[in-house]
Design goal:
Layout: E1 4-8, H1 15-26, E2 29-32, H2 33-43, H3 46-55, H4 63-74, E3 81-84, H5 90-102, E4 109-114, H6 117-127, H7 134-148, H8 150-157, E5 161-165, H9 170-181
Parallel strand pairs: 1-3, 1-4, 2-3, 4-5
Helix pairs in contact: 1-9, 2-3, 6-7
Bound molecules: adenosine-5'-diphosphate (ADP).
The site of adenosine-5'-diphosphate has 18 residues, from helix 2 and helix 3.
Length: 182
């Protein structure tokens, strides 16, 4: 199986949950920029303080901040990795491509988890994270549509995109993903 993966999809699609499962099964490094940023927030670092204000509005944290977080971790991985939540706009795609070129580790497969807005909103509201309030969710979906969804065409053009249906229970979705990655 491929061991350099990128999970793409709207907020609430289950990327984090599914990425954890796949990483555990395949021994990959799980790189979630959302988790890494929340870690900085809970540690109360300067970076965390700046990021928190932006995250609570559902906007994107600066490209340089997320890049530096990813860069630190990626250089340490030897068994392969799974990127979750990064890149999130075309500038981040460019920055990531340069970084991966330098370390000779191109992405092998991009997996798109597709799901409707109503299910997403419902899932996020029941999760109840600090940025899971109705108006913030609406903004996160808008940011996804405006800034992140153009990545779908980009990776499709590169011929490395696969998509699966993200509706249903965790196990069903996990099985679909494993099938797609085989
Ligand atoms: P979700 O995908 O459910 O919105 P994440 O945990 O991936 O949850 O992200 C939460 C928040 O963290 C985002 O709304 C954004 O503010 C910030 N964030 C995460 N990844 C990035 C990124 N690559 N670039 C900019 N901001 C990011």
């Amino acid at each position: 199986m491929k061991n350099r993966l990128l999970f793409l999809g709207p907020p609430g699609a289950g990327k984090g949950t599914q990425a954890s499962l796949i990483c555990k099964e395949k021994g990959l490094l799980h790189l979630s920029t959302g988790d890494l940023l929340r870690e900085e927030v809970s540690l109360g670092t300067q970076l965390g303080k700046e990021a928190e204000l932006i995250m609570n509005k559902g906007e994107l944290v600066s490209d340089q901040i997320v890049l530096s977080i990813v860069e630190k971790k990626l250089s340490k991985s030897s068994q392969g990795w799974l990127l979750d939540g990064f890149p999130r706009n075309l500038m981040q795609v460019e920055l990531l491509e340069k970084l991966l070129k330098d370390i000779h580790q191109p992405i092998q497969t991009v997996l798109l988890i597709e799901i409707d807005d109503e299910t997403l909103t419902h899932r996020m509201l029941s999760r109840g994270r600090k940025d899971d309030k109705e108006d913030v969710i609406r903004n996160r979906l808008k940011v996804y549509r405006d800034k992140t969804s153009p990545l779908v065409n980009h990776y499709m053009d590169l011929g490395i995109l696969k998509s699966i249906n993200g509706c249903g229970n965790i196990e069903d979705v996990n099985n679909r993903i494993k099938e797609a990655l085989n």
